[in-house]
Structure formats: C-alpha cells, structure tokens
Amino acid sequence: METKTIKAFGTEAADKPLHSLQINRRVPEPHDVEIEILYCGICHSDLHASRDEWGGTKYPIVPGHEIVGRVTNVGNHVTKFKVGDIAAIGCIVDSCRECDYCKEGMEQFCEPGNTIVFGSRDKNMGGYTFGGFSESIVADENYVLHVPAGLDLAAAAPLLCAGITVYSPLKHWKTGPGKKIGIIGIGGLGHLAIKIAKAMGAHVIVFTTSISKAEDAERLGADEVVLSTDARQMKKQSKLDMILDTVSANHNVNDYLKMLKVDGSLVLVGLPVDDISVEAFKLVKGRKSFSGSNIGGIAETQEMLDFCAAHNITAEIEMITMQQINEAYDRMEKGDVRYRFVIDMATLKN
Ligand code: NAP
Ligand code: ZN
Ligand code: ZN
C-alpha cells in the first residue's frame, strides 16, 4: 500500500507532553477521501486518552476527532466528494457495515467493533489509527461528512464530537416543547447541549460549578441556571424529564436523580474515570432510569450538522496554535475553557 509521511502532534507516554512527530497516512484507495485538516477541536476525551486516564491508550497517540478540512484527493470510486469540497470527520472512520447496528445507522455500537479515528487497529496499514492533530487524514467516503454552507468552519469543528454526543441523546429522549431538560456542566459538550436543546424547543435548566459560567448561561440559551454547589438552589429543582450529564470528573449523581419526574432519565455522556455510586431508592422511587449514550451514527451526525446549520448553531471557541496544546489541556483540566479550544491547523507547519 502506498503511503506518505506527514507532520502530526502526539506523544509516546502518558506523562510526556504532546510534541511534533511524523506519521504515515495511506494514499487514497478507490473509496477514500483525503482531507487537508484546517481546524481540529479539542475534546476532553483527547486529554483523558493522551494521559491514559481510562487505561488502554495505544502509544504513540495522535489525538483529535473534531476535524474539518478541505478535500485534496479522492479515490476513483468516490462519488460523494470532489477535490475542493469542505468535509469533516468525527470519531468513527470505519465499521463492519454488516451488523444489525451498522445497518440501522448506529455505527457507534458496531458489534465486531468500529474503527475510531485514533487508537483503533488500522485495518489498512496495520498498527493503530492516528487522529486529527495532523496535516491530513484519509478515510472511506462513507465515514466523511459534508459541512453545510454558511457554518463558520473553525466553530463547526466541535460539532463533530461534542455536537453529536449531545444531539443524539437529546433526540433519543425526545427533547422538545413542553419538556424540562437539565444539562450538567458547561464545557464543550454542555454549552452545545444548551444551544441544541433550546433549538429543539425545550425548557433548559443548566447546572454548573462555575459562578462565572452561570452568569453566561442565559446568553447561551438557558432558561434557568443553577449553581450546583448551592444546596438551596439545587433543592428548588424538580420534575425534570431528562438530565444530560456531561461532567468529566467524579460527582454525585444522586443529587440529580432526585430531581427527575416519574419515568425521567439521567443520561450520562461524561466519562469520569472512577465508578459512579447510585442509591437504589433514588431510582426505584419514581421508576427512574440511569443511562448513557455514546457519540452518534454517521447519518445522525450529518443530520446534526444540517440541524445546526438550520438553527445557526456552532461552538463558542477559543482558537489556539498547535504549539499551545499542552497549555490548553491544563486549562481544560481545570474547567477553564470558554467553551471549546480549536486548533488552527495551519500552525502545525510552524
Ligand atoms: P470539558 O469541556 O472539560 O467540560 C466538562 C465540564 O464538566 C466542565 O466544564 C465543568 O463544567 C464540569 N466539571 C468538571 N469537573 C467537575 C467536577 N469535579 N464536578 C462537577 N463538574 C465538573 O469536557 P467535554 O469535552 O465537554 O467532555 C465532557 C466529558 O464527556 C468528558 O469526560 C469526555 O471524555 C466525555 N465525552 C463523552 C463522549 C461520549 O460519546 N459519551 C463524547 C465526548 C466526550 P462547569 O464548570 O460548568 O461545572
Ligand atoms: Zn470527543
Ligand atoms: Zn457493525
């Protein structure tokens, strides 16, 4: 297989900062699209994985899974993209395409296992896949998304993971007019969840540990803002239909189970490292559900991009250079991001 060497940013160990390195990419096969990466968002999952917080990280790792760029080459069987198109890639770059879940458009739950953009076995080249903190990327056209015209490209990048990760459960749990939807945490996922839930027509209640973000939440579209460290404010909330939990660190979910109405659901998308403790009575009284959700399928990701374009939704971003990545990780760890870092990938060449 023909390959080419390109520049990337990554690391060989959990305790080592990200730095410049070189990786190989395949030259497009007949069904492949090659994209020059213009912008890549930084998700908390990139940080968890780089530092091996969940265990199992394959090194060297090149993170990055909120990718927007320009098509520079296509294989001779590609029909959906042409050179010059603006295209995007999220978490999933391949799957079996044959299992029940793939057939239903739920490639995120592919039974034999999907190929994630970084750290998955690379079926084409061997070794493990490398993500979007790189000059370019190659993927089968069926796993590449179209970016609707009119969206700011840098601010659209975070939709590829943060956007779909909140859109999918909000839709699944039937967010809409007349529903009281809670969002916990105003980070990359949380701030997009506020905007999307609001655009779906729900009454949106936001829970944050940060006073300064509480002051900003109404601007993002929240109907009510609760400082979660204030027990008095927390006690006032009741009868929520669904609460989406985007928190990246350990916290007490029982406080939120209490707030759900009968048959309500607390839905986890955040992935804290330690086990979560649930009080049985908090679920049993009120027939409540504690559940989770994982990104979204490819068709659903395109649907989300089209929804966001129709409602003029993009992320609030802080643009950084590739060289600022380690500082950005440290700030993200402290919850100090308004509200998503996006890397200007042109700076990778510096
Ligand atoms: P992020 O931008 O760092 O936001 C996380 C937010 O959680 C923070 O802004 C903060 O909000 C809140 N938080 C942090 N520490 C907290 C603590 N100790 N107690 C209470 N709240 C705390 O991260 P993100 O990129 O949105 O990702 C959030 C989580 O989702 C991560 O664990 C990530 O790995 C996971 N994730 C899951 C999926 C999936 O498919 N399920 C996809 C993408 C990401 P406030 O300042 O408002 O309190
Ligand atoms: Zn992510
Ligand atoms: Zn499958």
TrEMBL record:
UniProt cofactor(s): Zn(2+)
GO MF term list: alcohol dehydrogenase (NADP+) activity; zinc ion binding
Alphabetical UniProt keywords: Metal-binding, Oxidoreductase, Zinc
Gene3D superfamilies named among the record's database cross-references: Medium-chain alcohol dehydrogenases, catalytic domain, NAD(P)-binding Rossmann-like Domain
Residue ranges of every copy of the Enoyl reductase (ER) domain listed in the record: 16-343
Family of this protein: Belongs to the zinc-containing alcohol dehydrogenase family.
Protein name: NAD(P)-dependent alcohol dehydrogenase
